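Before the break, one more example. Copy the sequence into your notebook; we will annotate it together after we see the structure.
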Amino acid sequence: MSTDRPTPGAGRVPRPSGALPTLETVAARAGVSRQTVSNALHRPDRLAAPTRDRVMRAVRETGYRPSLPARQLATRRAQAVAVRADRPQDGISGMVLDVFFHGLAVAGERSGNRVVLYPEQPDEHSELAVVEGLLGSGAADAVVLTATSVGDGRPAHLIDAGLTFCAFGRPWGVNEPPHDWVDVDGAHGTGLAVAHLLAAGRRRVGFLGWPDDAATGRDRRRGWDEALTAAAVPGPRVEVACENDAAAARTCTAAMLARDDAPDALVCASDSLALGAHRAVLDARADVMVVGFDATPVAAALGLASVAQPVSEAAHTCLELLLPRLGGGDHPARGVLLEPTLAVPT
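Here is what the structure looks like once it is written out:
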């Protein structure tokens, strides 16, 4: 029987039965010293990128796994990064964080760090108490914050407490990065969606977004608005905000389609909204193109174009920003804004 699955262990260097790869094994494979391998794993900021990449490739090829007890003893660290596990969502939007968690776990495994999940709390104060408990007790060395928003008090509190963290999400409303963060350029993503729809001959491109208190939603709306302005598409423009729920989106879209100035295309702030919009279009038997955001399997199954966020890359980048801080030393805060792409069904 044929299979597309890779053979377990493919690409790894064969080793004698029972022999575990060591730092020396990796060093020989990469053609570097044992200390260089140690730096790549513990203090990657000390190495040039090509050297670090060569060592990490050798780590993967040899199947080397750092000894956690030995590393904890040597570094006096937990070798762990904490991140919040949110309550289950609608089954669509929650897929994004699932990918993020997986990417963080993979990045952690490669650098010898575990990922520790803590449950979502009822408010910021309670969450900060949990984080301080984890970092203060030595159960984790740092935390990755998620779901940042305007007025988010968590970063300032952690800075004041001298705790190590990186945020998956921008410090909204702040120009200079006060701390490490990684985010995805949502405005660029909805701009790609508008360009796709205009190329398809659509001219009345509407927007289905979230209520105005969501900074991420405003960012995605801005990309839609700026792209139409740049393309000199005449108004008026049709837009509606509703909760991130497929049923709510179906109702809102039905109302939009009943208008005299109904759109012939819709850019949606999420795939949950795109699902509801798609159903409303089918109900009305209308010729309206729908583009989602997040490129989930739901959008792919419906044959909808959707903005794909580099979520796994974001997770890896979060850990890359944290590792130099965990290795010691003073480092300037960095903000990294990643560009999404548009996933178009073929």
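The chain has a mean pLDDT of 88. Residues 94-111 form the longest helix (18 residues). Try to locate both features in your own notes.
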